[in-house]
Please model this.
Amino acid sequence: MPKSRNYRRTKKSLIARMFKAVCSLFEFAGRGLLRFLKICDGKLTIMVVPHSKGKVINFHTNVFALAFGIILLTGIIGSFIYFNRQVAGSNAEISRLMSENRQTLASLDELRDENNNLLQTAKRFKTSLSQSLSILGINSSSTVAKASMNDSDLSSLFDKQQNVTGSTKEVNDIRQLNSYLESVVQPIEQIGKMLESQETLFADIPNIWPIKGGIGHISMPFGQTPHPITGQWYIHKGLDISTWRSGDPIVATANGQVVTVTFDPGFGNYVIIKHKHGIYTRYCHMNSVRVKKGQYVSQRDVIGTIGNTGIVTGPHLHYEVHIGSDVVDPSKYVNVKLTK
Model:
């Protein structure tokens, strides 16, 4: 019992102390608040005294109103400065975006021009491919024309492009052109296979440029022309090919056998090669000869070098193609130049 009574007394004493401390705290806070309100309620008089002998203007206020006015004015000025900076930043961003937009529009115009050029090139490609397929006997109606399915034919592209405007038009054109190019892969592969299967035949027929590396130019064509020395008109039976110098390698334009290696006052040093199908080629005005009579040569083999032997006005190669007893225009057989 004594211990229980002591515990209760201690408990009551602790609660009383806590209550007294809280009351003291509230009392202190109340006195502070009253003091603050009293200070804020303090009367102030603001006098505006002009330099001239005018009337003095008095403003009556209190500390609270003055402080609130200063805080409000500071907030307004701060907000103005902040939003002014935001507007300046926004204007700079707008200017940057407008500059990028102008550059994008210029790039878009350039893209449209290139797209139009691509379409024009595709038109020419389609025409050339159709002609090539017709010459080679490949049924273009079953290959290229298949592109008309799913609106992918090139002709449908050109017919429909008038109905599409804006960037959608360019995208539509490129999409259909891509479909068309995919459709012509098969016929082009067929051409490649055909050329590969006919490689031996091509090697037996003169079809390459007779100067190694494809260099030189035609200085005198085949046919009727004034003679470079006499000035009289005559039939030039070959092509004169010049590189402006002596010593450039001359190659055999087809597989064959060398049947003539000799010198002639007019043609100088010259070589005749016999090919299959009754075709002969002659190479004249050579500076040096690197083959012998009876020797078999392959297409692209070097048989000599350009020179100025015989009757010439400068170093060049006189190149002839004979089919049987007929002399033909060699330009029809030099459409493929050497690249090696």
